[in-house]
Amino acid sequence: MAAAAWASGSLAARLPCRLSPWWRAGGVAGYAIALRVGTEGPRGMSVRKGRPNDRQRRESGPPRTENMEVDQDWTSVYPAAAAFKPSSVPLPIRMGYPVKRGVPPGKEGNLELIKIPNFLHLTPVAIRKHCAALKDFCTEWPAALDNDEKCMQHFPIEIETTDYVSAGPSVRNPKARVTTLRVKLSSLNLDDHAKKKFIKLVGERYCKGTDTLTITTDRCPLRRQNYDHGVYLLTVLFHESWKTEPWEKEKTEADMEEYVWENSASEKSALDTLLRISTAETAEGTSREALLASEVVQDYKKSMVALRNEGDTEKTLSEYKESVKRLLNLNALS
């Protein structure tokens, strides 16, 4: 009991505590010790919370730029596209808003340099290495394709894409997925019916002045998908233009895409009039083939086709008027 009392007294002397009575069953009183945990211990000693960190921190060494040699292989430092690393670029690069009319912030800890894409991996030396590695997989340019006309003859389809370079957190641009396909209709194997139907199907995508079809695809998320979609559309249009539906045989002159003078009402009326005039002037008359090959009939044909296809303009009306006068020989009467 004495030893227990001495131990309790020494513990109470060393730790701040408070005795509180509590009762057991049977009426025997007892005491409980409540310790106060705080930062201040006995004799002014401080008590540290948590597990002590006895491991010493390792001091950071000098940056890599101080140990770089002048003639080092830069392609080993930046072998591929990566974010800007200030410890690997031995250049005094600065970027950002200058504070208090000073200079822009340096490269150490500069977020502006990390956010934007860089071309540190596309140095002239790296490009030469890439070309040398790809040279084994390439073939020589054909000697027969020595001008643009021959290239367009053998490779009539032209594909146009655009790559964007912008200052942003991503190197990808949504507009880069757009693919434009161009081809001349004269390079496609189309007859008169297929060409007219092809032009009717594509609508405003065909330019009559340059004879060029332009198909722009941007519905798919990837450039390769849009390229495949454009080639698919061109293939479908080509095969559909060669088909002849039953209702196409019932087309009349008013339903034609453009006016055709052969076998038209204008041709029949003009030939009938000239045959009557020729029969009245000479007893033998002139054959139908001779009248079609004559110069006045060919001039009338051109003016009539231009008037019906190009519309009523001052030029077409004037040419039509003069051709009718020559056809009917009205200039001799004036």
Provide the spatial order of strands within the biggest beta sheet: 3-4-6-5
Question: How much helical structure, as a percent, in the residues?
Answer: 25-40%
Q: What is the global morphology?
A: elongated
Ranges with pLDDT <50 over ≥5 residues? Answer: 1-35
Order of helices and strands: HEEHHHHEEHEEHHHHH
Approximately how much beta-strand content do the residues carry?
5-15%
Amino-to-carboxy terminus distance: 156 Å
The radius of gyration is 47 Å
- What average pLDDT do the residues reach? 81
Structure overview:
The chain is α+β, with helices and mostly antiparallel strands and 334 residues long. 37% of the residues lie in helices and 9% in strands. The strands form 2 sheets. Strands 3-4-6-5 form a 4-stranded antiparallel beta sheet. Residues 1-35 have low confidence and may be disordered.
